[in-house]
Amino acid sequence: MPIRLPFFKKKKIEQSPEIKIDNIPKHIAIIMDGNGRWAKKRGLPRVAGHKEGMDVVKKIVNTASKHDVEILTLYAFST
């Protein structure tokens, strides 16, 4: 059951520039940090930052899959 938060609005999906297939790395690693600070800066609860982070993770996973990235490492931490 998806969480619906009233302070989120649907965002327009930005079109990325054309990606050259021969330049895609086999392994991409991303360290995710700052979602709580992102929310706090906007006067939102921390959970809003975590939701935004998850939305970004979904986009990353879908894009990596679409472009045949073999290994995707995501590291998330929180204090």
Verbal overview:
- The protein is α+β, with helices and mostly antiparallel strands.
- Helix content is 35%, strand content 15%.
- The protein has a two-stranded parallel ribbon with strand order 1-2.
- α1 packs across α2.
Name its key features.
single chain; 79 residues; alpha+beta; two-stranded parallel ribbon; 2 helices
Largest pleated sheet: 2 strands, parallel
Sheet-strand content, in percent, reads 15-25%
Specify Rg, calculated over alpha carbons. Answer: 15 Å
- Percentage of residues assigned to helices: 25-40%
End-to-end distance? 26 Å
Described by the principal axes of the CA atoms, the overall outline is elongated
Structural class: alpha+beta
- Mean pLDDT comes to 81
Enumerate the strands of the largest sheet in spatial order, edge to edge or round the barrel.
1-2
Please provide the ordered H/E string of secondary-structure elements.
EHHE
Total helical segments: 2
Low-confidence stretches: none
What's the total count of β strands?
Answer: 2
